[in-house]
Structure formats: C-alpha cells, structure tokens
Amino acid sequence: MNRTRMTMAQAIVKFLDRQYVSLDGVETKFVEGVFTIFGHGCCVGLGEALSPGSKPAQNLYSHSLTVYQGHNEQGMAHAAIAYAKEHNRRKIMPCISSIGPGATNMVTAAATATVNRLPALFLPGDIFACRQPDPVLQQLESTRDFSLSVNDAFKPVCQFWDRITRPEQIMTSLLHAFRVLTDPRETGAVCIALAQDVQGEAYDYPDVFFERRTHIINRYPCSSSDVNKIIAALCKAKKPVVICGGGVRYSEAHEAFKSFIDTLNIPFVETQVGKSIIPYDHSLNCGGVGVTGTLAANKIINEADFVLAVGTRLNDFVTASKSSFTKAKVMTVNVQPYDGIKLGAHAIIADAKDTLLKVISTIKEKPVYTLHSNQAKKYISDWNAEKELLYKKTFTDGLSQLAALHEINKSIPANAIVVAASGSLPGDMERLWEATHKDTYHLEYGFSCMGYEVTGALGAKLAHQQEREVFALVGDGAYMLLHSELFTSIQEGAKINILLFDNSGYHCIDNLQRAQGINAFACEFKYRDKASGHLTGKNIPVDYASNARSYGCETWTVTDLKELKTALQAAAHSTVSTLIDIKVAKKSMTGGYDAWWRVGTPEVSKNDPTLAAFNDLAKKRSSALRDY
Questions:
Q1: How many angstroms separate the most distant Cα atoms in the chain?
Q2: What does the alpha-carbon distance between residue 16 and residue 66 come to, in Å, rounded to a whole number?
Q3: Judging by beta carbons within 10 Å of its beta carbon (0-12, 13-18, 19+), is residue 142 exposed, middle or buried?
Q4: For 90, 136, 453, 471, which has the most beta carbons within 10 A of its beta carbon?
Q5: CATH architecture observed for domain 393-504+542-583
C-alpha cells in the first residue's frame, strides 16, 4: 500500500478536498471552501495546511478549497449553515477556530445547525495532547478531569463529536463525521476538536484514504404497505390537511408535493421552512400555520379530521403548543424517526418525494374533498382581505412595519432570497410575505437565533454568487447582536442588502411581557432614568446607516413609504452591500390568529394581570391539549 507522510492538518485538508455527494445520480462537490479566523491553536497547524505558500495563486499542498476570512466565529458559522441550507444540504463550509473563545463562539451556531437538521462541520483547535506546556494560552483547566477542554461544550449540541489526540485517529473520525453530515436521518452539527500539537505531527497516511470519495444520499423508500396506509387514511378522511415542512425542500420534492395537492384537491399549510416550496397564490395554500400563522391556516387545520405532516419537526409554534388539531388523526412522513413519532403520530419513516409520488401513482379511487377545499378557499379569500387591512393600518408614531414589509415584497426581485430569524419579523413574514418563486424564503426559526440574519444572508449569497439578490430582514436588536459578516460581504464583493427595522427595542419580547401582565421592563432601548434608577428614560437614537457606511456599504435612512421605495430602487443599482435603516412605529407588527403559545407564566405574583394570565394558562392546560 502506497503511503504519504504528512501532518494531521495537511491530511484533513486533503481529505476535505476530495469529498463528493450524490443524490439521484447527480454528483456534487461537498466541500469547496472553509471559513476561519486564524488564532492560537489553528493558524500554525490547519493554517499552514491551507496556506498558498510563497508562490501566488498556488496552494502549497495542492488543494482547491477557497479560504474565507470570518470576523466573528459564530457569524461565520451561521453563514456556513445558511450556505448548506441554500444547497439543500448538498454542500458544506467547514469552520475552523482557535482553542478558546474562538471555539466557544461557535457553540451557539452548532446548536442552530442541529436544531434545523442542517450539516455543519466545526474544527476547533484544542489544548496540547501531550500536556507538557499546560496551561497554555486560552486553556480552561479542570481540577477534576484533565481530559476536559472548552470543546466539550459542543457535545450536547452536536450529532457527532470527537477529539483527535493522535494523527492517525483522523482517518476513522472523518469517515464517521461525513457519514453523519451526509445522512438526512442524522445530519446536524459535527465537531472534531484538534489538539494543536497533534495538528503538526506527521503520519504515513495510506494514499487510498485520499481517493475521491462519493457519499450517496439515499432516498429512504416508502414501503408499499405504508403507501397503502396513507391511502386508507386519505380515503377515510373527510377534512384532511397537509403540513408542508422543510423536509419537502431538502428532499427536493417541490413538484411532487404540488402534484399530490392538485391530484387529491387537499388544502395545505406551511411551516417556516416549508414556505416558498409552493407559490403563495396556489388556490389551496392557506399559508403559515400555528403561532405565527394565518387565520386561514389555523381555521382549516383546527377543522381537520386527518393531518398529514410531511417533513416537519412539529415544534410548539406549528402545533400551537399542542393545542391545535387535537381532534385529528396525525400521520407523519419523515426520514427522522425521532420527528416522525411526535404527537403520537403514525410515522411513515421515508423520503418525502418518494412517498408522495408513490401515493399519487398507487391511489385508484380518489376521495372527494370538494366542500372542504372550497371552505379552505373561502378562508384564504377572507385572509387576503385581512392582509389588505393590515397593510393600510396607520400609526401616529411612525411608519407601519407591515406597510414597509409589503412595499419591500412588491419592490425587490421576485427571485430574490429573503433571510430572517428573530423578533417580530418571522411572524409578520410567515403571515404576509408573498413568495412567488421557489426557495426564496429563508427563515431560521428552529433556534430563532438573533444575529443569524446578516450572517445568514452572506451564506446565502456565497451559495448563489451573482445569480440572486439576497436581503436580510433584521430588527435593530438582532443587528446589534451580530452583524460582523457584513464586513466579510464587502471583503468578498458578495453584495447583500440589509433591511433594518428600527423600533428602538426588543418589541416582540416586550409584547410577550405585556401579554402576561408584566409591566414594560428592559426591552426598550432607553437611557437609564436617574430619578428612578430604571431604564425608563428617553429613547436612544442610533444611526445604523452610519455604522454600515463605515464598513463601505451604501446606506439610506427612511421614515415613510416614499423614501423606502426610492431607497430600494437605489439599492438595486448598487454594486456593494447596502443597508436601509427603516424607522418604524413600535407596535406596528401583527398579532396572533387563533393560536396559543404556552410560556412559563408565574403562578404566584403581586401583579393582578399576571395572575389573570396564569389563570388563562390553567384553563388552557385543562382543555384538550396533547400531552406528547
């Protein structure tokens, strides 16, 4: 067997560069680049292996990976997650960090990836395996367990975790890591912690380990007996509803889902990830469901006697904290058994596309749901009228967030990708955003991670380059939390557009406080009042446009729809990243529509409104809720 002597870090780079995936016979290079912030514990090992060397445009170790310089480890990792999502999990962007805060900065992103069932590979540096120079810079010492490092914090948020303390260990570790990354049943965050001394240690690696390797992404087939179970349930049902989840997108089952709906004439509702799989104006599309859902969707699903949930995690927002569709029989189609059995459902553990196509081709006598589908169309018509009223609603203290959102929806290219994640915008967008093109709606709402918006927009742009415009819709609070990769977009010439909704605070959470009878507290951006000692002084004005301009962006500040429209037109002609600072009224977002969300309301309180909110919770808990 031929062998080549190289360091562990050099072996990792060479292996990464030779990984491919195949779905339905279409082969794709799985790793085309990496994100990194070089620091103590990675710049000498992996940094040397990735280095182009002394000759311009020539890699020292002959790899084809593009190295992207991040500016916050969590930010670059969020960009990598968005990149994987835009490629429907068929490409990843590994993230490399130093051994201490650089590594722990990525833990939040690892959780984001795992919650959203998206592949992400984290390669943090680690402390010395030999322990001779302990404690090294950035090392967190444990007096009870010398094998611990900060990288153990990745364990609960990863689908696979390993620590490399000998150079030959990387061979088995990488094979298992890529098994998880490329399997739709298991995918999520993967962390391989790399001891910094071992990164530079050499081993005679077998050349066969570096041969081009293609990982087959299997479509887990739906058995004929399960197809018949779905058909039997559909034939028995009088008022079926289908939930379109993210699994439909990742299975690339867009046309199969539409054909299924059209063939059987069944109303459907969407999750945040399922939105834009089918155009918003499909006659049976009732829109987003649950806590951030439309009135049409929540009405039709609560009347259902059978719910077919395709490719969804069935989280509390979709199920309205398990208070929705409680009288319906639930059947799921999901490749992940853990998700499949939620709500005590009958689980069909299979690929969405394979399942839907088999049902369509197998069913002989199609059930008739004419009255039910007509009722859904009536609800959709009523909801469209409600939307028009929402757009026209005015506020004395500024521009309506909903009117601004509607103007943006009309003005930006129909094939543009919109990215959002936190605050009131995900609710407003799931209810009101009208997506006409496939996969143009990119919401991270599994972890609802503030700060994903700008960084995720960069990842989406890197996935599509010049093909698509990308817009991040972000609140002022989330923008302040993390927008570092806006600078990366300037550095890379990857134009993204930031639409910043400035309402001077965390008003989504302020609404939650007030709804539970709690007085406004620490959610608005105010100066501290010297007399009371509380954060109840004047609002703090912030010029976000100036902040983005300092990075090299083109910027505008707008206070009305005319200014917004003009700014959007100007941004369309810009060749660099842009930011529009939209000053909006504080309480100009949508409310809920026939859905309940359970939160930890205090059972004992000196606030009478809070006690009243707890009594409402107690009544709801005593009604027909699902326990599992």
A1: 79
A2: 12
A3: exposed
A4: 453
A5: 3-Layer(aba) Sandwich (3.40)
Delimiting residues of CATH 3.40.50.970 domain(s) in the chain: 3-216, 393-504+542-583
Report the Cα 544 to chain-centroid distance in Å. 25
Q: Which CATH architecture has domain 224-383?
A: 3-Layer(aba) Sandwich (3.40)
For residue 54, what pLDDT is reported?
Answer: 47
Q: Where are the alpha helices (DSSP H) in 288-445?
A: 295-302, 316-319, 337-340, 352-362, 370-392, 401-411, 425-432
| pLDDT score, position 58 | 52
Q: Are 95 and 56 in contact (CB under 8 A)?
A: no
- Cβ-based neighbours of 20, under 8 Å, separated by 6 or more: 27, 28, 29, 30, 212, 213, 214, 215
Q: How far apart are CA 198 and CA 130, in angstroms?
A: 9
- Residues 157-168 have pLDDT tens digits of 999 999 999 999
| Sign of the alpha-carbon torsion through 587, 589, 592, 596 | negative
Tens digit of pLDDT for each residue in 462-473? 999 888 999 999
611: which residues sit within 8 A by CB, 6+ positions away? 517, 605
Residues of the chain with CATH 3.40.50.1220: 224-383
3-state secondary structure of 306: strand
Cβ atoms 32, 232 nearer than 8 A: no
Question: What 3-state DSSP class applies to 330?
Answer: strand
Contacts 24+ apart (CB under 8 A), 549-557: 549/579, 551/486, 551/487, 551/490, 551/577, 552/490, 552/576, 552/577, 553/486, 553/490, 553/498, 553/577, 553/578, 553/579, 554/578, 554/579, 555/579, 555/580, 555/581, 556/580, 556/581, 557/581, 557/583
Give the sign of the dihedral formed by CA 52, CA 55, CA 60, CA 62. Answer: positive
Alpha carbon distance 139, 129 (integer Å): 12
- Residues 195, 139: Cα–Cα separation, whole Å: 12
Q: Can you identify the CATH homologous superfamily of domain 3-216?
A: Thiamin diphosphate (ThDP)-binding fold, Pyr/PP domains (3.40.50.970)
Residues of the chain with pLDDT under 50: 54-56
Instruction: Output the pTM of the full model.
Output: 0.96
CA distance 73 to 497: 21
Say if strands 497-502 and 213-216 run parallel, antiparallel, or are unpaired: unpaired
Task: Please tell me the distance from the alpha carbon of residue 553 to that of residue 132, in angstroms, as a whole number.
Answer: 48
Rounded Cα–Cα distance for residues 371 and 359 (Å): 22
At 239, phi and psi to the nearest 5? -135, 70
Q: Round to whole Å and give the CA distance between 358 and 253.
A: 12
Phi, psi at residue 54, to the nearest 5°?
-85, -20
CA distance 606 to 243: 42
**Among 175, 165, 265, 160, which residue's Cα sits nearest to residue 211?**
175
Instruction: Name the strand (E) or helix (H) holding 120.
Output: strand 120-126
Question: How far, in Å, CA of 50 to CA of 474, rounded?
Answer: 34
pLDDT score, position 569: 98
Cα–Cα distance for residue pair 126/164, rounded to 1 Å:
9
Q: Quick check: helix, strand or coil at residue 268?
A: strand
Helix/strand/coil for 585: coil
